[in-house]
Design brief:
single chain; mainly alpha
Length: 71
């Protein structure tokens, strides 16, 4: 999958201004400090499927997840 650098930068800018900015910063720092492959092909496939599920509206809130886990 070819990534458009301009599109990626635009998305990072939007996320960096929102409520997930801390998570984005930590994730970028984590990836930047890694050597070699961070994710296996299977991991990447699972991540892509997760994004597809979100696009289809197949997600739960944090509260729903905690309730389901009995937390």
């Amino acid at each position: 999958m070819q990534v458009s650098i301009d599109d990626l930068i635009d998305k990072v800018k939007v996320i960096a201004q929102g409520p997930n900015s801390n998570a984005l910063e930590k994730f970028i720092d984590y990836l930047y400090e890694q050597e070699g492959e961070v994710f296996s092909p299977e991991d990447l496939s699972d991540i892509e499927e997760g994004f597809a599920q979100i696009k289809r509206g197949e997600s739960v809130t944090l509260e729903e997840m905690e309730k389901g886990l009995g937390l």
